[in-house]
Amino acid sequence: MPARRKPFKACRKCRALVDKNATECPHCGSRDLTEDWEGIIIVIDPENSEIAKILGFTKPGRYAIKVT
After folding, report:
1. In a 3-state reduction of DSSP, which class is residue 27?
2. Long-range pairs for 43-50: beta carbons < 8 A, 24 or more residues apart
3. Whole-number percent of the chain with pLDDT over 70
4. What is the mean pLDDT of residues 20-28?
5. For the chain, which domains are there?
6. Are strands 33-34 and 8-11 parallel, antiparallel or unpaired?
7. Digit-coded pLDDT (tens) for 58-67
8. What are the binding residues?
9. Minimum mean pLDDT among 3-7, 17-21, 53-57: which range?
10. Model-level pTM?
11. What is the DSSP letter of 4?
């Protein structure tokens, strides 16, 4: 069975998930994007999210748990 293509790329700098056709991260401006990532965290309210604080996410959005 072929590997499933991911609908997002992950920013290697901030781990934000962006559209697979994006060339730049809208969160940090980095152009270092990869399809090699695992797991998703969705942050809705970063100021009140313990997970967001621990992982350093300051903006709402989708983030990868692991980026390589």
Report:
1. coil
2. none
3. 94
4. 96
5. 8-67 (2.20.28.90)
6. antiparallel
7. 999 999 999 9
8. 11, 14, 25, 28
9. 3-7
10. 0.87
11. P
